[in-house]
Amino acid sequence: MQWVRDITPDAARQHLYRRAILITLIGNLTLAVGKGIAAYYSDSVALYADAVNSASDVLYSLLMILGLWMAMQPPDLSHPQGHSRFEPLVGLAVAIAMTYAGYEAGRAAIERFLSGGSPVEPGLPTLVLLLSGALKAGMYFMMRRIALSVASPALAATARDNLSDVITSGAAFLGVYGSRFLHPLLDPVAGALVALWIFRAAVEAAHENLKYLTGAGASPELREEIAAVAGKVPGVLRVHQVITEYVGPQLVADLHINVDGHISLDAAHHIADTVQAAVEAVHEVDRAYIHVEPCEKNIVAKPPLPIENL
Fold first, then answer.
1. From residue 207, how far is each of 44, 70, 87, 213 by CA, in Å?
2. Do the beta carbons of residue 259 and residue 274 sit within 8 Å?
3. What are 223-239's pLDDT values in tens digits?
C-alpha cells in the first residue's frame, strides 16, 4: 500500500531557490545596516522610514529561508502530497513584515511633521538612497526572473517588495533634497508617502498569497488551456469537466473526459495516463486527476484509434 506521493526532486528548482535566498538575505542586510547608519547621522525621517523598511526585509528574508526550506522537503506521512503550502505562508509573512514597516514609517513621519520638521543635509543620505535604489532595482529583476521560472508566489512577493523599495528610496531622496532647498516639512511628507506605498504593496502581496492558501481556482484562460491540452490527446472525444484548485503555489486539476465506450480497459487507461502527463506538463499544474467516462450517445465520436496506437 502506498501512503506517500511519488515525486522526483527538482534540482534546478532547488538551485534557484537557494540563489534567491542568498540574493535577498545579503542584499537586504547590507541595505538595512547602511541606511540605519546614514539615518542616525543625518536625522532624516524619510531615510529612517526607508531603513525600517529594509530592516523588515531582513526579517522576512530569515522567514523565507525557513519557509522555502520546508516547501522543498519531499512528501512524508505527515504531508503525503508534499509541503508546497509552506511557500505562500512565506509570502504572507512578507506581507505582514511590510505592513509593520509601513506602520513604523508612518508613525515616524507623523511625529516629525507635528514637530515642524527640520532640514536635512543631502550629502550622505542622498548617496545611500541612490545606491539603495540601484541595488534594489537589480534585486527586483533577478528575483522576478527566478519567480517566473519556478512559479513561486513567495518569490513574486519578494520581487514586488524590491520594486516598492526602489519607489520608496526615490521618495525619500526627493524628501531629503526638498527639506533642504524647499521646505523642512517635505522630509516627513516623503516619509508618509513611503509608508503609504509600503501599505499598498503589502495588501497586494497578502491578497495574492491568500489566494494560494484558500484554494482559489485558475484563471479562465488557464482553464481553457488545460481543457485544450487534454482534448488534443488521441482517443479523447470530449473534456466535460475541468475543476482547478491552488494547493500552495501550483494547481491541482480534476478532469472528466469521454472516450469510446467500446475500447478495452487497457486502452482507456493509456488515454487517461497520456492526458495526465499532458496536463501536468502545463507550467502551473502540479498534478492532475483524470476520470474516464464512456462516450454518451449524443456525442458524435471520432473513429477510435487502433489499440496499438493508444
1. 32, 22, 14, 10
2. no
3. 999 999 999 999 999 99
pLDDT in tens, 210-266: 888 887 888 889 999 999 999 999 999 999 999 999 887 778 999 999 999 889 999
Q: In what order do the strands lie in the sheet with 238-247?
A: 238-247, 250-259, 285-294
Q: Which domains are delineated in the chain?
A: 11-213 (1.20.1510.10), 220-309 (3.30.70.1350)
The most distant pair of C-alpha atoms in the chain lies apart, rounded to whole Å, by 85
Hey, what amino acid is at 49?
Answer: A
* C-beta of residue 230 within 8 angstroms of C-beta of residue 258: no
Question: Grid coordinates 538612497 are at which residue?
Answer: 129
CA distance 123 to 130: 11
Residues 153, 209 contacting (CB under 8 angstroms): yes
Pairing of strands 238-247, 285-294: unpaired
Residue 199 per-residue DSSP state = H
Q: Under a CB-based contact definition with an 8 Å cutoff, are residues 247 and 81 in contact?
A: yes
Nearest C-alpha neighbor of 51 from the set 160, 63, 42: 42
Backbone angles phi, psi at 89, to 5 degrees: -65, -40
- The neighbour count for residue 297, using CB atoms within 10 Å, is 7
